[in-house]
Amino acid sequence: MNSSSSSSFRRVASLRALVVAAIGALALAGCSSADAPDEVEFAGEHVSAATFAAATEVAGVTVIDVRTPEEFDAGHLPGAINVDVQAADFGVQVSELEVAGDYAVYCRSGNRSAAAIDLMAQEGIANTIGLAGGIGAWTGDVVGG
Asked: Structural domain tally of the chain?
């Protein structure tokens, strides 16, 4: 191989290595979870669907759908329980929850879950998080329906 061919070969090999490294860096950057939080805070606030999804994965969390039983039956998050915030016995059902538990609460749009979180706080349940935009903002699995 002459020196010109050898030099061209080295440039192509260097360029190929640079392209492979750039693709690898882009792939790793694409795998980062910029939308996912490092730590979920159950502080009574409504959060993005990505943060809410992370909250549903926290060990021991209870996911609560506060819509009507009919809405719940039409489709709900996997593992969710139905505690209708508009039911006459909502306070009784909330009083049966573990005060120190973590609760991820959602409804259709976020309004009823905000009311439910307020009522839960009145019962001493402070470790809650709500889904901003409700189930309409959810991008994960839905069961039922």
From this structure: 2
